[in-house]
Amino acid sequence: MEKGESTVTPWEVKGEVDYDALIKQFGVEPLDDVLLERLKKQAGFLHILLRRRMFFAHRELGDWISSYDKGVNAALYTGRGPSGNTHLGHLIPWIFTKYLQDAFGSELYFQITDDEKFYVNPDLTLEEIAGYTKDNLLDIIAVGFDPKKTKIFCDMEYTKELYGIAARVAKHVTFSTAKAAFGFTDSSNIGIIFFPAIQAAPCFLPQRLTGKDAHILIPCAIDQEPYWRVTRDVAPKLGFRKPAGVYSKFIPGLGSGGKMSASLPETAIFLSDSPEAGAKKIKNAFTGGQPTIKEQKEKGGNPDVCVIYSYLYSLFDEDDKNVMETYNQCKSGGIMCGTCKNRLAEMIKIFLTEHQKKRADAKAMVNEFMLKG
Ligand code: TYM
Asked: 36-46: per-residue pLDDT in tens?
């Protein structure tokens, strides 16, 4: 793959992702100041993931907010494919979804695609996936969604409701459309070829369950966008509104280049890592620093390629002045990598300790959240 080239599909993210190019390629809109202002007005504050442009693109977010203003059921939909333990990257869309649920008082539909991960992962058994589902559910609940307004369901279990909707969707999607959107080939198994209809189904689930109009907004990272492109084409044919979407960038792994991914465990912060193990991974991470302290002082570091700085900037350091200072000091050689690593490692320790407490509490709450088939 050439420098600057990338592949972004729901199952593979490779190369250096150029987000401006993706906006054009996927035909989505950049998140602009007008929309940020509307979100700020509704929520009472602008979430760090918006302020620092981790969420960077959308489809018809403004229309979704207008639906809410008009009293339409403005609901949220997001999900998880349980192929392993949850990592920090997965949490990004969920933290943001909670912000939106709090701001708009929205219902949230949360899909666990235990079928998808079986189709795409040659080595995973259904039993292993069921184990990850149980485990991942605790991380999802630990985010703090409102149990009265949040409905979580697994495809393998909630099949009866989902299948009826998926069949209606699938009838309107040709194989050539699916090939163009997802890159399927003759050697793709037929399970995954049908699967996009299952991931589309929750966009129309509230309407089916209530018999009333609803407008869905999907917060997720940009890799999931091909699903929504296909779903949006079908929606009017079934008499429903097109789902809106709001999309984040990928949090990078701790190595040099690439998104955080469970397939590279040393470069991912898993929510099940002990706080000490998490801190240790941070201390071993790739930075934008020079090879020696002397060179760092003379030439300065490069925060633009530094994973540590990117975590501070995107998620962990809320203080705008502080984060700018870190940037400038790094560039001028006034700060060493060890200082930034230690700071972030402490933040990660606190974050994991708190998350794991909430995860333990979540065990007693699973039934409250689940939609059963
Ligand atoms: P999954 O389990 O691969 O990922 C869960 C969510 O995390 C996002 N994501 C990331 N975000 C930021 N940085 C990263 N490094 C990173 N890696 C993953 C994904 O975009 C996703 O939002 N097919 C889906 C499950 C699903 C779904 C949905 C997701 C079903 N319905 C509706 C979003 C919205 C999947 O396997 O996600």
From this structure: 999 999 999 99
Give the position, in ligand 1's atom list, of the atom nearest the Cα of 251.
13
Quote the ligand 1 centre to 102 CA distance (angstroms).
21
Residue 182 phi, psi dihedral angles, 5° rounding: -115, -5
Which pTM value belongs to this model? 0.97
Q: What is the pLDDT of residues 158-203, one digit of tens each?
A: 999 999 999 999 999 999 999 999 999 999 999 999 999 999 999 9
Instruction: Measure the CA–CA gap between 328 and 282, rounded to whole angstroms.
Output: 21
Decide: 259 and 277 in contact? Cβ < 8 Å.
Answer: no
145: tokens are 């969604």
> Encoding tokens for residue 189?
């198994």
Helix (H, G, I), strand (E, B) or coil at 269: coil
pLDDT score, position 2: 61
Query: Which residues, judged by CB distance below 6 Å to any ligand atom, belong to the binding site of ligand 1?
Result: 10, 77-81, 89-90, 92-93, 111, 113, 116, 199, 218, 220-221, 223-224, 248, 250-251, 259-260
CATH number of the domain at 265-360, out of 1.10.240.10, 2.30.30.370, 3.40.50.620, 3.40.50.1110? 1.10.240.10
Nearest to 219 by CA among 33, 30, 59, 23: 59
Q: How many CB atoms lie within 10 A of CB 195?
A: 24
Cα(371)–Cα(368) distance, rounded to whole angstroms? 9
Q: pLDDT at residue 35 above 90?
A: yes
CATH of 6-250, one of 3.40.50.620, 3.40.30.120, 3.40.190.10, 3.20.20.150: 3.40.50.620
| Ligand 1: centre distance to CA 321 (Å) | 31
Number of Cβ within 10 Å of residue 16's Cβ equals 12
Quote the pLDDT of residue 354: 98
